[in-house]
Amino acid sequence: MKAQMNKFLLLAILLTVSCNQDSTHVIADLPKVLNEASGIDTTTKSDVIWMLNDSGNSSKIYGLNRNGIIEKELKIDAKNHDWEDLSSDNEGNLYIGDFGNNTNKRKNLVILKVSAEALKGSDKAAVERISFKYSNQEKFPPKKKKMHFDCEAFFHYNDSLYLFTKSRVKNDFGKTHLYKIPAKKGNHVAELISTFSSCNTSNCWVTSADISDDGKQMVLLTQKSFFVFINFTSNDFFNGTFKQYDFKYESQKESICFKDKNTVYITDEKAHGDGGNLYEFKLD
């Protein structure tokens, strides 16, 4: 058994590449209304880059161009309890992750689906509510050593929604749990699939995720770096190989999405006079 474990660890090291060259460059200064941008995504057949703010802000989403200019502002018919991430499907529908859960005691976790048709309108957009709870959470809140039920990252893939939790456990901040729920209206129990650990410090919190249009690459964002996973099988995105891209400049990076298979967009929050930008990062 020990020999098998050592073999597995060696294989993991060989399959993992750390890329220290930071290819991030600023393409736009975000408008003041998006100083706390926590979610970003694009939709099919549109050049608009959608963004949102997290808790404490209005229930609106904003469509920007590459220059950081807001071209569309849409009110959402739902409260912003703690919006944390955005995702979209192949039909152009947008999903808002209202699952921020710092204290691990929320019982109203929900993902809001905004139809592609509603995104074209100017009136308050109606939503479908995809409510869920975690299959392995028994107490609200749990004990400190089990505070793994915060969440800031998810994406849509093959008619399901995949969530990546954010650990609040000291010395285990880099651990994320992967869950799956159906991408349809109703009340669901999130199925635990797998886990991954980036590092142990708070700058390793997972803050956003996305999957490429062809379903062959998955990204996880932290303030310190981001990870690109490939060669995974089925829906366990952690069973493949990955590359780690380290940032030279650490900031409160909160959202990531694919622009295309070779490029990702990243945003960070404005804090202490720094950040509040839209970045572009070219992958190897």
UniProtKB/TrEMBL annotation:
PROSITE patterns: PROKAR_LIPOPROTEIN (PS51257). This is SdiA-regulated family protein. It comes from Flavivirga eckloniae.
